[in-house]
Amino acid sequence: MEMCPPLLVDSVVDQIRPPYPRRAPGAHRGGTVDAPGSAWTTGEATGPPVATPDCVRPGQGGPLTSSGGTQMNKSELVSAIAKRADVPSATVDQVLNGLQEELVEAITRGDKVAVPGLITVERSQRSARTGRNPQTGESIEIAAAHTAKVTAGSNLKKAAAAVPVN
């Protein structure tokens, strides 16, 4: 597969919409004036190039998320772990399936599973409460329920904090 041309984007919105012309610097949604010669007044499309199926962007393994990164699906995760650990993909897939089954059983039993520095998964209880139907405004009683609580470990928190905020 060939590499795509570089992205010329300012935000996640630019990455997920078709290539529309950009507003001139300083112009905003509420503004009525566009700079002379800008893409809005000349009609030139200056948005990002559209990715085609035969075009691959480095570091983009899946659909964009609201944070601007990409979403990795299970098969991509299996491939990445297999490559990093130098083991067959089938083995990694079996391990992930086993992890999923064990987490489900642990939550069912009410156990807490902790992998220090990475993740903690436990069952939590949500108490009964009164809610409101957003369409009708009618009050409704919401029953108590159990839910899964997932907490990021210190290594994940440090990795997230190390990324600069745009």
Structure description:
The protein has 166 residues and is of the alpha+beta class. The protein folds into three domains: 1-71, no CATH class; 72-111; 112-166, HU Protein, Chain A. It has helices at residues 12-16, 39-42, 74-85, 89-109, 154-161, and strands at residues 2-3, 55-56, 113-115, 119-126, 129-132, 139-142, 145-152. Helix 3 (74-85) packs across helix 4. The protein starts with a strand and ends in a 5-residue tail after the last helix. The model is unreliable at 1-23, 27-35 and 38-61 (pLDDT under 50).
Give the beta-strand count: 7
Helix count equals 5
Structural class: alpha+beta
Secondary-structure element order, as H and E?
EHHEHHEEEEEH
Chain-averaged pLDDT: 75
- Quick one: overall form? extended
Helix-strand layout with pairing:
Layout: E1 2-3, H1 12-16, H2 39-42, E2 55-56, H3 74-85, H4 89-109, E3 113-115, E4 119-126, E5 129-132, E6 139-142, E7 145-152, H5 154-161
Parallel strand pairs: 1-2
Antiparallel strand pairs: 3-4, 4-7, 5-6
Helix pairs in contact: 3-4
